[in-house]
What does this fold into?
Amino acid sequence: MTTFVRIAELQSFTAAATSLGLPKSRASAAVSQLEAHLKTQLLYRTTRRVQLTHDGQAYYERCRELLAELDELDALFERTPSALTGSLRVDMPVSMARNFLIPRLPEFLGRHPALDIELSCTDRRVDVIAEGFDCVIRVGALADSGLVARPLGVLKMGNYASPAYLARHGEPKTLDDLSGHYLIHYALTLGSRPFGFEYRDAEGYKTVDMAGRITVNNTEAFQASALAGLGLFQAPRTGNRRNVETGALVEILPAFEAEPLPVSVIYPRRRHQARRVRAFIDWVAGIMSDYLD
It folds into this structure.
């Protein structure tokens, strides 16, 4: 099972065998034995890649759960917990990885030298189960997915523009002034309706429709567009504090903040969660408390 899972994750017999310290022939034989035992094909094999079949995907997901339970079982009667081992597969937004997690990751890996992390950085909503993630950090409202969600806090929002943009268009002082400005639009799915400029009044959060010259679908391009002077920019304060300090961005309309963005870590609902997953989630919750409200 361990060999099969590693082949499925790396999509390569050679890479999986190397990572496990096995001959390629032995890795191939292990999968053949599983397929013969289960009486089904688990992998499509081509000269260029290895891909899970439909049955293989279902078996892969169950194998990960069973192997995690075996980790727990092995440690059940240990008086001193053993070192964390194995691999973690994690996903998070690009900006969160760059600004918060990766700078602090050496301390976590330093505590657990036998642990490896596969880190996916993307702003799209990954399929936690189908793609085999142990946990995912998400920013924004969560859909009812059947996954477990642990709230970490919220990101407070600010309104920004570059000095070059303000020199060309002037600084807006009121909501009425927004009619003469452009907003940088963010949409995970290009072609969807932009949200507009968000603000809070006595009745709650509202939006003002605004023109925009550019719509982006990831946070890196979002911030880069603001720094390039392409429009007004509504984004988390934490990730832009340095830009304000250096003068790359100017904070505007401070009385009109958008709704804070909730940050959560989500993970599959399993009866037994591997110790390495619990340890990583607890560590993430600890370091994010330094950045979130």
